[in-house]
Specification:
By secondary structure, this protein is an alpha+beta fold. It has helices at 30-46, 70-91, 110-122, 146-149, 155-166, 172-183, 191-201, 223-237, 271-281, 324-340, 356-370, 379-387, 398-405, 416-432, 469-476, 489-502, 521-534, 549-558, 592-600; strands spanning 14-19, 50-56, 60-66, 104-107, 131-132, 241-242, 289-300, 307-318, 347-354, 436-438, 449-457, 460-467, 482-488, 511-515, 540-543, 563-567, 573-578, 584-588. It is flat. The two termini are 43 Å apart.
Length: 602
């Protein structure tokens, strides 16, 4: 079988890796590192390759470079080998190749991933101690990338901003994604860019799962019905109570014996305001409450007088000021998308806003910064300056983009307590295995504070939300903590249609319980009944057939089961197989319920 062509995308930085032949160390003494760095500098100058970061370890070599074409990158790596390998062979009395096969290479989208990969390289996030670059040092080797230059105006501030970035929590799931992308010679990019490049290059660029694609056999059902069923099950199981909201935000006043409306009718703009109105009218409501709603909202686009109709499923929680409720809602959304089968096509973007005073001060600073240039603004930009000046920082116009580089940064106004709170949130997301992106350009559409988040696929937002303590307190007239989000039904339904058009329908079962011997068939039925009572949202099936064990495991995978449980002959011990692994763990009937929750995010 011919080997796969190495992936190269013009104008993209490329993360490359070299390993020693048969695990042989690549560096043994300090002089080896110096010699390699000399070869690195000469190769970069000869073939006009920009080196942005490197890490030299005995086990492997990481380089992040930008080359003008595929040939330049190949010649760059060959030049290093032709200068370093002869030196290494002479010094240690050996001969032959030093590298293990070809070098691995992975293009990466600079915007969201350049700083992440640079930290991955220079902070040894793969767990290997190395001799590496440090920001722009050494200056005779490292070339700054445009993403690096956008950090600040001068080199000292750039270095400090990068050090601050490196002190933020490490996303272990993202580190695994970088390693898998590099090993499979794939593209490290957002779903939007990945889809566009896959269409242009007519090939798959994203990381693939091991084995052949599964072919599920379940029957297709209507997408809207799926969303309603999933939302009802998920939210009810997590203690959220469904509420009904009025279509109108104000009750119209009628003249006596007349149908004439005296007070204008205002259609429901969003469910959050309706939930707050409901709480204000209900004196018996608890201090802590979780509610959810569904229905049609009528919003108005910014600087557009036309009414936009959209359907959404909203989730709100009141009276909980800590980050626990934010983590709960983010995990709930991640689990929701995972169950729909679209988790790999979306990305979580989060940003720290600080408290309402910090964000207000940030807006005032932006207003003062942009005010001298207001004579150049369009009417829409002038309106943004007056109400939401942070939106000017995300403008696509070239002159505004350059102006935004020196604009005030939000993190300068956020208090230390808010920053520590955000770090705890990031660590918690890492612990539960959610990939997230700290998006400094994500600003709230509504009056959020502390944290704002969006789940995105391509250019579509599937869900958005955040914390809005100040807004809720102002509406209700007394202090209250509030956090919520909304699933946007139409974008999710469209993504589901695209997903099922490219793949097969969703799996028909979540867990399959196999009886290893006929005498424990009754115990598997009892275990299935027990699990259904504890986890009503799971689809659980038993297999007590007399087929070969390998065939029964294959049938379980073909049905899309995430977990296969094999009951031993004692009717008590269990082997737990996960869908993405051929290994198994030993457990038993008493412990299985506690283990299923973390595995399936229940």
């Amino acid at each position: 079988m011919p080997r796969k062509n190495r992936l190269f995308i013009r104008d993209f930085p490329h993360l490359t890796q070299l390993r020693g032949h048969n695990g042989e160390p690549l560096f043994r003494q300090e002089n080896d590192y110096i010699t390699f760095e000399i070869a690195l500098a000469l190769a970069a100058k000869r073939y006009a390759v920009a080196i942005h970061s490197y890490s030299l370890a005995a086990e492997r070599i990481f380089l992040m470079v930008t080359a003008k074409d595929r040939q330049s990158l190949s010649c760059f790596v060959q030049y290093i080998g032709r200068h370093y390998v002869p030196y290494y062979n002479r010094r240690y009395q050996r001969y032959g190749a030093l590298w293990e096969s070809r070098y691995a290479c992975s293009p990466l989208q600079a915007g969201p991933y350049f700083l992440i990969v640079k930290r991955f390289i220079e902070c040894d996030e793969d767990g290997t101690h190395s001799h590496h670059s440090d920001g722009l040092n050494p200056k005779n080797i490292i070339a700054p990338h445009p993403v690096w230059l956008e950090l600040a105006d001068d080199e000292i501030q750039q270095q400090q901003r990068f050090k601050d970035f490196c002190r933020s929590p490490v996303n272990s799931v993202l580190v695994t994604k970088i390693c898998n992308t590099l090993n499979q010679n794939c593209l490290l990019a957002t779903p939007t860019v990945s889809r566009r490049l896959e269409s242009q290059l007519a090939c798959s660029l994203r990381v693939r799962q091991r084995g052949r694609p599964r072919q599920y056999t379940s029957v297709k059902i209507d997408q809207w019905q799926k969303l309603e069923q999933h939302a009802s099950i998920f939210l009810r199981q997590r203690g959220y109570q469904q509420v009904r909201l009025s279509m109108l935000e104000q009750e119209p006043l009628m003249a006596t014996n007349s149908s004439t409306v005296i007070k204008p009718i205002q259609l429901r703009r969003d469910g959050t305001f309706g939930c707050l109105q409901m709480i204000s009218r209900c004196s018996t409501s608890q201090s802590m409450s979780r509610v959810w709603y569904s229905g049609t909202m009528f919003g108005q686009e910014y600087c557009n007088h036309t009414i936009q109709q959209r359907d959404q499923i909203g989730v709100e929680a009141f009276g909980m000021p800590g980050i626990d409720i934010e983590i709960e809602q983010l995990v709930l959304q991640a689990h929701f998308f995972q169950r729909l089968g679209i988790a790999s096509q979306i990305a979580l973007h989060i940003n720290m806003l600080g408290d309402i005073n910090a964000f207000t001060a940030f807006r005032r600073a932006l207003f003062a910064y942009y005010q001298p240039h207001s004579h150049l603004f369009t009417p829409e930009q002038t309106q943004q300056l007056m109400s939401h000046p942070e939106r000017l920082r995300n403008s696509t116009e070239a002159w505004l983009h350059q102006l935004a580089i020196a604009a005030p940064q939000l993190d300068l106004f956020v208090s230390q307590d808010s920053q520590q709170r955000f770090i705890r949130l990031q660590l918690a997301l890492n612990q539960v295995g959610i990939v997230w992106h700290h998006d400094n350009h994500l600003y709230p559409r509504n009056e959020y504070c502390q944290v704002v988040f969006e789940w995105r696929s391509d250019n579509n937002v599937l869900s958005r939300g955040g914390r809005y303590d100040a807004y809720a307190s102002r509406i209700l007239g007394y202090p209250i903590a509030a956090c919520g989000f909304a699933f946007l039904v139409e974008p999710i339904a469209r993504l589901l249609e695209q997903h099922e058009a490219q793949h097969h329908s969703l799996p028909s079962v979540d867990i399959v319980i196999i009886a290893s011997q006929p005498r424990v068939g009754a115990q598997t039925v009892l275990l299935a009944r027990q699990l259904r009572q504890q986890f009503p949202e799971l689809r659980i099936a038993t297999d007590s057939s007399q087929l070969r064990m390998a065939t029964r495991h294959k049938n379980s995978r073909n049905q899309g089961a995430k977990i296969t449980l094999e009951m031993e002959g004692d009717g008590y011990s269990l082997r737990l197989y996960k869908a993405e692994s051929t290994d198994y763990s030993i457990t038993n009937v008493d412990q299985i319920s506690d283990q299923l929750g973390p595995i399936l995010w229940l």
